[in-house]
Amino acid sequence: MEIEVQDVTMQFKKAKEEVFSLKEAVIQKLKGRRSYELFTALSNVSFCVARGEVVGIIGTNGSGKSTVLKIISGALLPTKGRVLVDRDKVQLLTLGAGFDPELTGKENVYLNGALIGYTKEFLDEKYEEIVRFAQLEGFMEEKVRKYSSGMVSRLGFAVATIRDTPEILILDEVLSVGDMFFREKSEKRIRSMIHGGSTVLMVSHSTSVIRKNCTKAIWIEKGRVQMEGDTDQVCKAYESMAGVKV
Question: 95 vs 79, 160, 163, 177, CA distance in Å?
Answer without folding.
Answer: 26, 7, 15, 9
